[in-house]
Amino acid sequence: MAGNTFGQLFKLTSFGESHGRAIGGVLDGCPAGIQLNLEQIQVELDRRKPGQSAIVTQRKEPDTVEFYSGIFEGKTTGTPIGFAIHNTNQKSKDYSHIKDSYRPSHADYVYDKKYGFRDYRGGGRSSARETASRVVAGAIAKQFLNGIQINAFVSQVGEMKLEKGYKELDFSKIETNPVRCPDTDMAEKMEAYIKSIKKEGDTIGGVITCVLQNVPIGLGEPVFDKLHAALGAAMLSINAVKGFEYGSGFDGVKMKGSQHNDAFDTDGSTKTNLSGGVQGGISNGMDIYFNVAFKPVATVLQAYETINKEGEKVTTQGKGRHDPCVVPRAVPIVEAMAALVLADFTLLARTNKI
Amino acid sequence: MAGNTFGQLFKLTSFGESHGRAIGGVLDGCPAGIQLNLEQIQVELDRRKPGQSAIVTQRKEPDTVEFYSGIFEGKTTGTPIGFAIHNTNQKSKDYSHIKDSYRPSHADYVYDKKYGFRDYRGGGRSSARETASRVVAGAIAKQFLNGIQINAFVSQVGEMKLEKGYKELDFSKIETNPVRCPDTDMAEKMEAYIKSIKKEGDTIGGVITCVLQNVPIGLGEPVFDKLHAALGAAMLSINAVKGFEYGSGFDGVKMKGSQHNDAFDTDGSTKTNLSGGVQGGISNGMDIYFNVAFKPVATVLQAYETINKEGEKVTTQGKGRHDPCVVPRAVPIVEAMAALVLADFTLLARTNKI
Amino acid sequence: MAGNTFGQLFKLTSFGESHGRAIGGVLDGCPAGIQLNLEQIQVELDRRKPGQSAIVTQRKEPDTVEFYSGIFEGKTTGTPIGFAIHNTNQKSKDYSHIKDSYRPSHADYVYDKKYGFRDYRGGGRSSARETASRVVAGAIAKQFLNGIQINAFVSQVGEMKLEKGYKELDFSKIETNPVRCPDTDMAEKMEAYIKSIKKEGDTIGGVITCVLQNVPIGLGEPVFDKLHAALGAAMLSINAVKGFEYGSGFDGVKMKGSQHNDAFDTDGSTKTNLSGGVQGGISNGMDIYFNVAFKPVATVLQAYETINKEGEKVTTQGKGRHDPCVVPRAVPIVEAMAALVLADFTLLARTNKI
Amino acid sequence: MAGNTFGQLFKLTSFGESHGRAIGGVLDGCPAGIQLNLEQIQVELDRRKPGQSAIVTQRKEPDTVEFYSGIFEGKTTGTPIGFAIHNTNQKSKDYSHIKDSYRPSHADYVYDKKYGFRDYRGGGRSSARETASRVVAGAIAKQFLNGIQINAFVSQVGEMKLEKGYKELDFSKIETNPVRCPDTDMAEKMEAYIKSIKKEGDTIGGVITCVLQNVPIGLGEPVFDKLHAALGAAMLSINAVKGFEYGSGFDGVKMKGSQHNDAFDTDGSTKTNLSGGVQGGISNGMDIYFNVAFKPVATVLQAYETINKEGEKVTTQGKGRHDPCVVPRAVPIVEAMAALVLADFTLLARTNKI
User: Fold this and answer.
1) H-state helical runs in chain B
2) Considering the domain B5-349 in this protein, what is its CATH number?
3) Of the candidates C151, C161, C164, C167, which has an alpha carbon nearest to the alpha carbon of residue C189?
4) If DSSP codes are grouped into helix, strand and coil, which group holds residue A72?
5) Which of A34, A65, A77, A87 is the best mutation test for D, with the most CBs of D within 10 A?
6) Tens of pLDDT along C204-238?
7) Which residues of B, range 207-226, sit inside 8 Å of D by Cβ?
8) pLDDT of B306-337, one tens digit each?
9) Rounded distance between C-alpha atoms, residue B134 and residue B127, angstroms
């Protein structure tokens, strides 16, 4: 309970506030015998880290992960993997202005109400900094899931929407631009747009599309732990996410059954894939694809009016080094959460039959 | 694990196949001392049951719930509430044609692959019949949550979309028409449209909107068990659901932060509510509202080509008594799942502070 | 939570009060494909049922189990197995005298304090009648665990203690006498002693020894879910149990390490087995054996003084049809709980390695 | 699952091997607002640490805990408390002799079989070093449970058994001698005996008694999560524990019901307390007391014969700095686990009633 553990068998328990000593976690249930590429874990963290390009926050956080346990002679041992990322660039003074007032559309107010007080340095636990722990665990999950391809990318920024289906895209282009959009032309436009938003001191929302390929048939535990329900919960647990759809999604509601049904080929695959790779909550071997909607970051570098603890009106100036658009840095987080879900259901599926 | 338990403290474990002897469940963790209105539980079941109007399946299932335990002298005792709904109208012969072939966009194929064989009578466990158990438990949750208003309604059928916001609607109209759309004009059009779809032997998708009012501040357990993540998982676990969005949802991605932020009033409420009543995964006291997308029902009363277990092509005729559009009957299911989530987080929130 | 679910992957959720309509449960996570012998499940229930001999309670309860789901064409389907045992012989009047007063060393008082009121008919949920559901689930677990031998027997009644080690006993004799002690001479003495205790209207405690053989190496999940810790919790959850020891147990504390260590043979087995088949919480392939201590049944057919709800002294006469000694009927319950633990850890162990 | 999380609401997830970089854990679910005395946490750790007296292992491990999160301005924040204890005295060479052979009655063999290989430095994860994390979390639990007294002490070493009941003892004497036995005379004899055992290079078992006082009525969640079942599981999860009994325990089996029943006083307390403070799995307000049996430490400083990975016989000399008797250092561990159980059930009990 208590909300800081994800997964049932492949389980991440995470800890840490944005401006505490360290963030980190414990990954329990990771099977023994995975030959880990530790450099690759750091590569994933670097995809998420601040300061990586001109369109993300310019905070300097090296985000170096230290492993404390569960790995021996380069392999997972089956015992819990404890890890920490020390916070090195805490600059608490940047946040002193939020100690006594509540930033709109942030969690300051609800934390105070729920817990009686809060760690007011940065977002504390509500900061997206916490997601770095997810990326570490997800990177290990990816190595466990070898054979499965997990690719996320930015498919929309504000009104700019990539209309091509994922099959028309070259995933190898995702990391070639700071937006992480595999369509290079669109990526350039998005980048320019984000820069202009940043110049205004404003922020903008976006959508990440994620595609899971070569997923074996049979993952997902009906009736409540359907594969897509777990993916949805995983994505909705990421900061700033407002929506999740898979397969035909919200557009599918407009269709008739006779149009929407995916006819079988003789090998058990389907000719179309409006279902999005999941039937009845169980993977069917087809590509799983889904969209994740991110709202615009709440911190805008503009003056705004709000209230303080006493309920009095105060005027504040947004400051700090924030992302004008969260989706480029959220791509590895979406992938990490997808990997955690798949790893968990891979283990669960081992128990389905005698 | 194993997927048939929902909730952490207010926990429903459900069982049952569409054509077995009974479906039912155990509700464990329900606090002692709730004066139960058993008639009201049956009312909720009747909102979900087949045969209630001309636009839903004409199967005859009385869906009478029997309680076995956990209730004494009209009140919950704090011990598990066991209940069953006996299947009285099993008509197995209706389904004999699906024993050896796989219906497109149904779960037949994946159940066979996952478990090695399947109960081929009706959908077995993958049938939406299972959701009756959810409605029973949700009806108890509603009685526990007295003071909170939970209202779901149909806001879209196919392309027909209710453009009014929920504040312009009169929830008392929801039950006055078979579609369960509170806008009477729109309801009539939707009803006519569903009838025409039915006449074609086809089906159509739809959207249910749900509004939770008077929710206390502080429900939700960051970082993984955010309130909206749990709501999302709950909704995505309902048969035929393809998407979930709350607050500004997918439309919110097009907005700038300066437009999207909800400014505070001095009482802690917010002037706008694009956030949808949840900040950082915790309820903030404002209305929680969300949309749930349902695909068109997969069973169409038309001839179709598919494969059998041996991977050979076969041609089959869809038959049986199915819903042309699932959303009218899914309204009480959406409400039930929302109630289960709120009940669970209400109990969890009791542990947040000393 | 809420205490009515046992197991992590092979999970029993139980419900029911002694004098409600039915008791029963849901077994979730049972792998698909087990060819079930339903008669054998009833045989196990009959080993536990009242009225089976002169030394147990003479209540008449047929304890017939009905299965509602999860079984198709004789095999488990991988979906939850719902079942119920209807209460047919409720004789509530027998218990009317306990409505307003608290029986000593029963749970009446604490249920009232914990939940605000209680189902005062019989023990309600605190009655050992609940264990019938465990026997049903355990009987299924046994069929899943084919190849593992689970044998429990009575090794002590009051001061009468079987001094022979389990290896000197013939387990096939256990069911040949009403005490369920495999040493026929001792069984006769115990039987006579229990009859004399019964005649006094009194009760007596006892010990059950359980031996698990052919358990594969590797069951148990350190550090908290050690195999023996789970067995201990399982046994201590049975009504009237006051103690658990395995291997050398409480006697082992008197030994030196040089005496207690179990030397290896070249095949990995050990020459002695003071460890009791578990090292570091993990089965080592040797026999697992443990003792479970049961207190004397609290209901004595004698006059006693106690208090009522108002805290006033009252004098009452114990009545009803109770067991003079609980251990003969508890033998199948101990076996059932052991089977549930082994089934659960068998599934968990499938996830240890890549 | 996976065994490294303890508790349902007040949850410790622990990590770490004896000779890895660090051990530690995450305590999730600890309520916000506890004013923490960090020095007191270190005091508890120091009670457990090596080198504290002549009768325990002479290893030098400072065991200094560092907190990474969940504490702000001296109080718990309601967010997860991450912590680590760095291993400073790893001396891996001490253990090189066990890389390829299996120590009798240690977990070396079963770890290799279960996980395919093992961290052979010291006991790795199976080392009792892991329990330091439990002591940290338990010390926090104790501060949450203020008002409840938790006292454990050594009541038996080898054949030397303290015959006095706990009410005749002065708990303030527990920490006045290295054995942690509150009877000073007995403590001296035990100390001398342990020293003689140590001189032989041998080890000896013992018993710890624990008494919980001022526990509120109502803790414990029947039917499976009975308070004493959780205490039993907690104790049995500690390294070297072979048995658990509470209240009358194994001696209670010899009694008649008429002797064993605890008669009520008019205030709801009982005149005797053979029940040990728990009825039907729920605390009844009386003292809870239980015994925990520890086997002799397996590492003896003597030559012994064993097998290597290839199943060949090898002769080895036990070495290293080990405890001749584990119970003195295990006293704070028993208290910590009891505190974790009580904290967990305290939170659970908040959900029992409307």
Assistant:
1) 38-48, 108-115, 131-144, 184-199, 227-236, 257-260, 327-349
2) 3.60.150.10
3) C161
4) strand
5) A77
6) 999 999 999 999 999 999 999 999 999 999 999 99
7) 222
8) 999 899 999 988 877 789 999 999 999 999 99
9) 13
